[in-house]
Amino acid sequence: MEFVDLQSQRQRLGKRLDDALASVLAHGRFINGPEVGLLEKRLAEFCGARHAVACASGTDALLLGMMALGVGRGDAVLVPSFSFVAPAEVVRLLGATPVFLDADPATFNLDPESIAPGVTAAKRAGLRPVGLIAVDLFGRPADYPAIESQVECLGLWLVADAAQSFGARSRAGRVGNFGVLATTSFYPSKPLGCYGDGGAIFTGDDALARELRSLLSHGCGAHAYDHVRVGINGRLDTIQAAILLGKLDLFAEEIVLRDRAAGRYRDLLSDVDGIAVPVMPEDVASTWAQYTMRLLRGERESFREKLRQEGVPSAVHYPVPLHRQPAFRDDPIAVDGLPAAERLSEIVISLPMHPYLTIAEQERVAAAVRGSLATR
Ligand SMILES: *Cc1c(COP(=O)(O)O)cnc(C)c1O
Fold first, then answer.
1. N or C: which end of the chain has fewer CB within 10 A?
2. What is the pLDDT of residue 375?
3. Which atom of ligand 1 is nearest to the CA of 83?
4. Dihedral of CA 234/325/118/83: which sign?
5. Ligand 1 binding site (Cβ under 6 Å of any ligand atom)
6. Selection from 204, 239, 199, 193 nearest residue 216 by Cα
7. Measured distance between the N- and C-terminal CA atoms of the chain, rounded to whole angstroms
8. How far is the CA of 185 from the centre of ligand 1 (A)?
9. CB neighbours of 352 closer than 8 A, spacing ≥ 6?
10. How far is CA 16 from CA 12, 87, 198, 237, in A?
11. What's the confidence (pLDDT) of residue 341?
């Protein structure tokens, strides 16, 4: 059993991907080839955003976004602590300071209640709070209505890190349309992944889209050797765009398959004592980038070892909250100890999740989970 099975999808796509690659090899425009522009159009259509700007990775998407928003020394940007490192990392790369927010223990996403204390903590540290990067952890959109009302009255901009949630929805709308800009990642194991690194930025703002395109191509102006700002090399390879175009044809169906797999896990596991499986409200459609549950008692590593003995792979997203990481432990935090982020990092465990999980595999996972809880 695979934790993320990319081969089943590869077999389904077979010749379609072979042909897409052969076509790029034949036309030879490996940078800025026609597939890149076509992909941008299809991505924008898929999520209903005005602009999609393809770039080299989800991390570059965030870095470019922060550069376009002018983030720099003396600025503070609020980010969740229970999350992947990229948002905090790009803030620090630009000389600004991340301020870590606590998590909502039920949704794993940032707790909107910790935004105002985060602003206070930033000011106390002598920093200028400028914005917030929300993360849609494991594919579930953050609580945007609550976040938007907070950032509005605090005078912050909002960026949505949708690296795990492209294709998701909530009652507030479709992912890709929250904040001044939204970013995503096409890392191979993300719900929509390429065969290498890739990412995209979504925005409704024409001027911002133009600036992002310039920034990702060395700050170019009227032509390639006219540099009107300092940029980076942040382009998406044509070959990756061609792969993504092929995969995008299956993506809507794969989101449904992921949701079906999540529903089966819920049916198999929700009555099991000692764990809490994720509960998704009716009006939220997650992309289930991870199926992450909480282990309510007992020791996680021995639990995982028992799963391993039954042939069931698992993973921990994320074992150390960012405010505890050596690279970030001197940065401000919103509330003392960030107790929910700390607790979650100790008790979360992710089960195999991908569109091609079979019922038999999920029954094996559920049996292993029950067995591992019973024998300790
Ligand atoms: C994967 C991920 C990123 C970074 O994407 P890359 O394409 O790997 O650079 C950023 N944020 C979150 C929440 C992620 O899960």
1. C
2. 67
3. 13
4. positive
5. 57-59, 83-84, 86, 135, 161, 163-164, 185, 187, 197, 199
6. 199
7. 24
8. 6
9. 1, 2, 3, 4, 291, 312, 313, 314, 361, 365
10. 9, 35, 20, 18
11. 98
- Residue 352 has what DSSP assignment? P
pLDDT digits (tens, 9 = 90+) for 71-90: 999 999 999 999 999 999 99
* Model confidence band, residue 376 (pLDDT cutoffs 50, 70, 90): low
CA distance 135 to 110: 7
Strands 128-135 and 75-80: parallel
Cβ atoms of 116 and 85 closer than 8 Å: no
User: Looking at residues 31-42, what average pLDDT do you find?
Assistant: 98
Residues 250-280 pLDDT 10s: 999 999 999 999 999 999 999 999 999 999 9
Which residues are CB-neighbours of 16 under 8 A, at least 6 positions away? 246, 249
Helix axes 144-154, 115-124, angle to 10 degrees: 30
CA angle in degrees (0–180, nearest 5) for 188-191-197: 30
Report DSSP letters for 254-318, one per residue. HHHHHHHHHHHHHHHHTT-TTEE-----TT-B---S-EEEEE-SS-HHHHHHHHHHTT---B-S-
pTM of the full predicted structure?
0.98
182-193 pLDDT, tens digit each: 999 999 999 999
Task: Give the mutation target among 77, 91, 164, 192 for probing the ligand 1 site: most ligand atoms within 8 A of CB.
Answer: 164
User: Cα separation of 70 and 58, whole Å?
Assistant: 19
Q: Which of 187, 192, 353 to mutate to test the pocket of ligand 1 (most atoms within 8 A of CB)?
A: 187
